[in-house]
Specification:
alpha+beta, Alpha-D-Glucose-1,6-Bisphosphate, Chain A, domain 4, seven-stranded antiparallel sheet, 8 helices, 7 strands, membrane, START-like_dom_sf
């Protein structure tokens, strides 16, 4: 497996980026991979800074590890490099031990901030199989964190606010994926609910038998639409599409079966909720941190 490489351009000087990445209380705020970082006491003559870190996997479960950091000023140009050695003894972590570095390269427009790191996995062949899924996730988390740091430094927006917006947005997207999947699978594809067929025949020249077949195809289309919500490049377009179509879907349902408007948790309340969530999602998307802002291969433009 190739080492993880992430690079980003920042409109800031090396010293400021160095401070935001080398001070534990600042570092732990923007780096998604760590929940806390604590430096151990260091003697003045020591070159290596040791620390402990923790990562909360879920409520009540966290991984605790160790690390060693060595910062150096390598060139007269102002370029800096920070070497890192890290690991954990906890079997819950796929990572046993790893090494890497952060590099800060100044230029006329700001600083190129990059990292490359690699690690050894535990559990032999099984660990290597797991790492085929875990390593891309680590690379994504590193890239997302770098963009959060960039926005914090350049725009002054705190990482906590950025992550809240990010996870709120994707919670909305996963909700839409669930809603469309359920609506396509259960009332249309699996049960072919009589009300679904009745509304379709009321709005079209189809017979009941034809409507029964058509509703299955509509269910399949809705399930496909649900899958599209998992494609990040399409989410903004899908939100705009829903803002347009939900009023028409609501009106069509009322015309086809007026009684649905007075039923508990009816089509009006459901679609109005989804319509407003679509607007909220679109607003959140405008200022969303993204792993795509980073270069993921050495020498390859974003």
């Amino acid at each position: 497996m190739k080492p993880i490489y992430v690079e980003i351009e920042m409109e800031s000087d090396v010293e400021k980026i160095w401070a935001y990445t080398q001070q534990p209380k600042l570092h732990e705020q923007w780096d998604l991979r760590f929940s806390s970082i604590t430096y151990n006491e260091k003697l003045p003559e020591e070159d290596v800074q040791t620390f402990t870190y923790s990562t909360k996997v879920m409520p009540g479960i966290e991984i605790v590890g160790w690390g060693e950091s060595k910062g150096t000023h390598e060139k007269a140009s102002g370029e800096k490099t920070s070497a890192l050695h890290f690991g954990t003894e906890q079997l819950l972590s796929p990572i046993a031990e790893g090494k890497g570095y952060w590099k800060y390269i100044p230029h006329e427009k700001g600083t190129t901030f990059l990292t490359q790191y690699d690690y050894k996995v535990r559990f032999g062949v099984f660990g290597k199989v797991v790492d085929r899924f875990f390593r891309p996730l680590m690379g994504w988390g590193t890239a997302l964190s770098f963009d959060v740091l960039k926005r914090w430094i350049e725009m002054g927006e705190s990482p906590k606010t950025q992550y809240r917006r990010f996870f709120a947005f994707y919670a909305i997207c996963f909700l839409f994926a669930f809603v469309w999947l359920y609506q396509g699978l259960v009332p249309k594809f699996l049960t072919q609910h009589p009300l679904e067929i009745s509304m379709l025949t009321q709005l079209s020249p189809l017979t009941a038998a034809q409507g029964s077949t058509a509703i299955i195809w509509i269910g399949g289309a809705e399930m496909l639409f649900a899958c599209l919500w998992l494609v990040s490049k399409l989410q903004k377009f899908l939100l705009k599409l829903q803002i347009v179509i939900f009023p028409f879907l609501t009106l069509s349902a009322i015309i086809a079966a007026p009684t649905v408007a007075i039923a508990p948790f009816n089509v009006i309340t459901l679609n109005a909720t989804l319509w407003i969530l679509s607007i909220i999602g679109l607003l959140l998307h405008e200022q969303l941190p993204s792993a795509n802002s980073c270069q993921r291969k050495r020498g390859k433009a974003v």
